[in-house]
Amino acid sequence: MRKILLVEPAYRNKFPPLGLMKLSTYHKLRGDYISFEKGLNPAKKNQQWDIIYISTLFTFYWKATIKTIDYYLNSVKDKSNIVVGGITATLLGDELEMEFPGITVKRGLLNKRGDIDCANGIIIDELIPDYSLLDDIDYEYSLKDSYIAYATKGCPRRCKFCAVHRIEPDFIHYLPLKKQVICVDEIYGKKQDLILMDNNALASDKFEVIIADILDLGFERGAKLNGRKRIVDFNQGLDMRYVTDKKMQLLARTAIEPLRIAFDDISMQQQYEDTITCASKYGLLELSNYVLYNYKDTPEDFYQRLRVNVLLNEKLGTKIYSFPMKYIPLNAKDRTFVGRHWNKRIIRGIQCVLLATRGLISPKRPFFEAAFGKSYEEFLKIVYMPDEYIIYRRNHENNGAFEWRKTYSQLTSNQMNQFLEIISDNKIEEKDVVRQKSKRLKTILSHYIESKR
Ligand code: SF4
Question: Of 26, 118, 226, 379, which is most buried, counting CB atoms within 10 Å of its CB?
């Protein structure tokens, strides 16, 4: 019996770590002892383990990932028994090997025989995840009471901002969904919801079979379990370029909620509107929209995409919740990247608005306009304000923010250019205020210093 430690670094994650859960199943089949940890635990660090598996997520969690590997490095006899897998391991594997010579980095999926323990015939990726693992720790994954499954793997597209083709290079049109769910039922009991992690299910030529599986599994529209509504969620979003009337009709037969559609580029506005119109025709009114920003888009087209959703809601009776997703390059080790048409102040301003609205962009026009402005010009006026004026807008409405807005509207175009140049890197200091000759510039810039006090 070997002693196996499974570790997920301490970053926040609502999804249970499927890879580690499948490794747990594998090692339990082999009769090994398993322990699971979220982050750093001195009691576990001080033991000796035969193998320590460390999962990784986005590359911008680089610091937390490195810290975790470093922490457990001496808890195995041989460094090769530290096995690191997952997204960062795939995208920045060489750098991990340079940072920690001798560790084992597993790139891509564990979908070949002998990926672990070379000589055996088990494919880890096909195993049923060990849900009991999640009871070992205090951390609560919010999607714990869900089947987390795949009906397809990979994606036939290769969008430049997306890592899927590097992690799952082959598009597999169909995986036996029913088997995955039924096996979980048998071992761990029924779960409430079905979360599908497919990257591009609509591209599958077996889409009808996938829907039939979902219906057979008891996730038809209106389905309930223990008196509660059941939900199917294609969590990674659906690709509108593959939407047809027929596919939307099929989706509407399931308990899908919300229907997630990405709207990454303003040039796709017409197609996006047609897709939402089609969804509403079949009664799919609860929608969620991933809005990529800070990529090749401009702040103006970001604002317009949010506004399109509000207008569609009014026209179609839909409830589209927008979820802005900030673009970060696939190999970035932090989240500081700023896109070509963006600057730090605007990005920070958007984050402050989202903090004020608790990350939720209301589907209703009055709330949207209060948060993001009635026009692009108003949007800019909001995101340029000092953080505190945006986050605690009510508290500052009648004094600081009022004064700021008054001075902002009085800036000449020359002063405006200077002002924007100074605030764009979002680091306004006392010396920036002092060195201004114009009184208006001094006044407006001093708000960034004063509001922090
Ligand atoms: S369609 Fe979606 S999953 Fe496929 S490459 Fe583009 S962003 Fe990634």
Answer: 379
